[in-house]
Amino acid sequence: MNTSDFNTFHATVKGKSFDDGKIEIVDMVTRSGSCFSVNQVIQILKLFSFDGKKADACVMFYKTIADPQNWYQVSNAFTFSSDWSKCKSKTTG
Predict the structure, then answer these.
(1) Residue spans of alpha helices (H) in the chain
(2) 3-class SS at 89?
């Protein structure tokens, strides 16, 4: 996603008070055909309060990744390794 569009997306997600609202925006944008870098995904995931919702968003983002060779870096956005494992099992197996 280009920088301008990403900044708008980031601000929209950040503006949602609760993770449920954030996940709705992520769902909508990931279904639109946009592609994201792993760095962009990490920035969005860090806006979530709870790792469970991060894992849900992570699964949504996986199919949109422009640089899948860097997917392992997403693990840095999680507080608990169990939630990263949940995401990983639903994306890369």
Answers:
(1) 3-14, 19-30, 38-45, 51-62, 81-91
(2) helix
